[in-house]
Amino acid sequence: MYFDEEPKHSLEDFYDREGELKEFLDSIRAGRKLILAIGLRRSGKTSLLNVGLALANLPYLIVDVRELAKFPRATHSDLLRILERAIRRMVERHRVMDFLKRVKGVKIYGFEIEFERGEKKPDLGELFEELDRWAGKKGKKVVVAFDEAQLLARATTWRFQMFLAHAYDYLRNTIFILTGSEVGLLYDFLGVDDPEAPLYGRHREEVKLDRFSEEKSRDFLLKGFKQARVKASADVIDYAVKKLDGIVGWLTAFGGKALKMGTRKEVVDEVLEEESKLSIQELEHFLNVRMIAKKRYMVMVKGLAKEPLGWGNLKSLVEKECGPIYNKNFTELLHNLVKAGFVEQRGELYTISDPVLLYALKEKRR
Length: 366
Ligand SMILES: Nc1ncnc2c1ncn2[C@@H]1O[C@H](COP(=O)(O)OP(=O)(O)O)[C@@H](O)[C@H]1O
Ligand SMILES: [Mg+2]
Prior knowledge:
- By secondary structure, this protein is an alpha/beta fold.
- It has 3 domains: 198 residues, P-loop containing nucleotide triphosphate hydrolases (Rossmann fold), CATH 3.40.50.300; 52 residues, no CATH class; 89 residues, Winged helix-like DNA-binding domain superfamily/Winged helix DNA-binding domain (Arc Repressor Mutant, subunit A), CATH 1.10.10.
- The chain has 15 helices and 9 strands.
- A 5-stranded parallel beta sheet has the order 2-5-6-1-7, sandwiched between helices. The protein has a two-stranded antiparallel ribbon with strand order 3-4. A two-stranded antiparallel ribbon has the order 8-9.
- Helix 1 crosses helix 2 and helix 8 crosses helix 9.
- The longest helix is centred in the last third of the chain and has 24 residues.
- The radius of gyration is 22 Å and the shape is globular.
C-alpha cells in the first residue's frame, strides 16, 4: 500500500524510484565504501534504505540517529543506546553474533545482547573492526547505515569524522551509508569538502531523492487510491499535486488521511496544517542559535514565502527592512538557509523548499 505512513520496507509498497534504487544497489554491489542518500525531509530516504538493503542481500545494520534529535546534546549513553538497538535488530534479522563475542563490554545471552555502560562500555572502534573482520571471514561485505547522520553531531563524545576516515581507510569489508535531510549540514559535519578534515578527498557516491514531478505526483496518488479502491476526483488530485509540491511523504500523508476522512481538498490543507507546527519549530530552532541575524533570516524566509525571488531582489528586501548589508554577508546568510534545507534554488530564483514550511509561513503571518 502506497498510503501506509510508516517508512516502506518492501518494493511492492515503494512507488517508482527505479533510478535511485538502481544507483543505490549498483554502488553497494560495486563495493563503494561511502554512499550518501540525500533529500529533503519526507523525500523517502529511510524507505530507500529499507527497501534497498532488503534487496542487496548483505548483512546490514541501520542506526537510527533521529532518536538523538529529541535532545540538543546527546550523552555517550544515548549514543550507545541507539547503537545497541541497531545491533539488536541486526542480530534478530541475520542471527549473527559471533563478532560480538570478541568485543569487550558487550554481554551476550542467547540471542540477546546488551552493552555495558560506564567504565566497561564497549569501544566503538573495536566494535566496527570486529564486524568488519567477521564479514571478511564470511567473504561478504557488511553495510553500516546511519539514518539522518548529521544528527550525530549532537553526540560530541564520538569523533565521527575521525572514526569514519579511519574506517574508510582500514575496514576492507564495510560499506557505510549515510542519509541526511540537511544536506549542507551533513557535508559540513563530515567535512567532505574541507581540506583540513580527516575525510577530505575520499570518494563518495551520492544518491539524490528529488521531489516528484507533477506528473509523477499525480500518478502516485491515482495508483494509491486505486490500490485502496477509492475514487478521487481530478479536481482534488490536482489541488493536492499543486500544494504538496512533489514531496512523497506529504502525498502519502494526504492519501492516508483521505482514505479515512474522504477525498476532499480540505484534507490537503489539514495535512499542511498538522505538520506546520513542527516545521516552524525547526525553523525557530535554527534561528534561536543565530540570534544576531535572526531578524534578517526571518525577513528572507517570509519574503520567499510570498514569492520566489532572485538574489538581488531578496537582498533589496532585506535592506529595506533591516538596513544595508554587505553582499558577502548577505550571500552567507542565504547559503546558511540553503544548507539547512529551508530554502532552495530553482533556476535563478530562491524558494522555500518544503511546502509545509511554505504553508506555515504564509498562514501564520508571523
Ligand atoms: N517511493 C515511495 N513510495 C511510497 N511511499 C513512499 C515512498 N517514499 C517514501 N514514502 C512514504 O513517504 C513518507 C516519508 O518517507 P521516509 O522514507 O520516512 O522519508 P525520509 O526518511 O526522507 O524522511 C513515509 O510515509 C513513506 O511511507
Ligand atoms: Mg527518514
